[in-house]
Design brief:
heterodimer; A: 96 residues; alpha/beta; three-stranded parallel β-sheet; 3 helices; B: alpha+beta; Multidrug-efflux Transporter Regulator, Chain: A, Domain 2; Heat Shock Protein 90; five-stranded antiparallel β-sheet; two-stranded antiparallel ribbon; 40% helix; DNA binding (chain B); DNA-bd_dom_put_sf (chain B)
Chain lengths: 96, 245
């Protein structure tokens, strides 16, 4: 399954909207089967921040672990956010 | 929203310059008026004049220090998070159009986003007087100001760290330790992220952050490794952030 983040917006910064995004996406995530890879695609995202990431990305990582693949992550705010989320949650996102 | 326009005489008064100066600025392209036809009267956009006439830091400072609480001037006021997100998105688009910020615009937007969102997240339902934040930017001067009249960092963090004694300690913890005032949420990376981005920003885009809550203040520069909190000569209840880039 591929999660195209730009479908949630291109400025992904608030905790509230990150939370709403995950809630809205739960029905779609129900169709994920065992061992399926979840690709999170950052293509088209202009700004990403830890508040949004904390509410959407970290729960996905906790649920799917190494089955999570992060794609098109060259944006500077995406990179900086990964770093702080990894440090503060003591996790390591799988390499793209 | 239609811009509010004023005639040249009023514009000159607002900027404290002569009418001739404004005509010169028009010819030089420094401040272009609005003209319905090439020869008709010059009109000026009030919002543009307000930006030119004042320093954003002074506007924000005046607002947080105001003893009788009032909403900030309309162009700078974000009463709720949704309005802030809209204005932040607009800032992002404008930053993206600046040639030397094609890559770094996202860092600036996310830093402003984290600071503004922090104000909303920590004060939702508990604003002591004016709800919402002041958010103003001037891309010519390369400045962004954010301020709130919320509870301030000390009060917010004391909920999870009751031993915090003063604004200085609270500000230090907010920028250096993993903690959140939104217990039981085990989160609170916002200001640590801000520090990380400001101090590690690409040298081509120098970012300076001045931040104050209560009487405690700090300034972060590119390359800083330590955080140094000082006691300011003025104090207020909420938070005030000023970014230069």
């Amino acid at each position: 399954m591929t999660v195209a983040l730009k479908k949630f917006g291109t400025t992904l910064t608030s905790r509230q909207s990150g939370k709403e995004a995950l809630l809205a996406y739960e029905p779609v995530l129900k169709s994920v089967v065992a061992d399926e890879t979840i690709i999170v695609d950052f293509e088209g995202v202009n700004t990403f921040s830890p508040s949004w990431g904390d509410e959407f990305l970290v729960p996905l990582y906790r649920r799917y672990g190494d089955r999570l693949v992060l794609q098109n992550t060259s944006n500077l705010s995406v990179q900086a956010t990964f770093k702080i989320l990894e440090e503060s949650n003591s996790i390591t996102f799988p390499a793209a | 929203m239609e811009p509010k326009l004023v005639k040249i005489r009023e514009a000159a008064r607002m900027l404290n310059v002569s009418i001739d100066t404004l005509r010169r600025w028009d010819k030089a392209g420094k401040l272009k008026p609005v003209r319905l036809t090439p020869t008709s009267n010059r009109y000026y956009d009030v919002n543009e004049l307000m930006l030119l006439s004042s320093n954003l830091l002074a506007i924000a400072k005046r607002w947080v220090l105001e003893s009788s609480p009032q909403e900030p001037d309309a162009p700078f006021y974000c009463p709720d998070s949704a309005i802030f997100q809209t204005k932040l998105h607009k800032l992002e688009q404008q930053l993206q159009a600046i040639p030397d910020l094609r890559e770094e615009f996202s860092l600036l937007t996310s830093v402003a986003g984290e600071i503004g969102n922090n104000s909303f997240d920590h004060n939702l339902g508990s604003w002591p007087d004016v709800r919402g934040i002041l958010f103003a930017y001037d891309l010519k001067k390369r400045q962004i100001a954010l301020a709130d009249r919320g509870q301030g960092i000390l009060k917010t963090l004391q909920r999870v760290r009751p031993a915090l004694a003063d604004d200085e300690q609270a500000l230090m913890v907010a920028f250096t330790e993993r903690v959140t005032g939104r217990a039981p949420e085990g989160r609170g990376n916002g200001l640590k992220y801000v520090r990380e981005v400001v101090t590690n920003a690409n040298k081509a885009m120098k970012m300076i952050l001045s931040f104050q809550t209560g009487r405690a203040a700090l300034t972060l520069n590119n390359g800083d490794t330590a955080v140094r909190v000082i006691t300011s000569d003025f104090s207020f209840r909420g938070c005030l952030a000023f970014i230069e880039f």
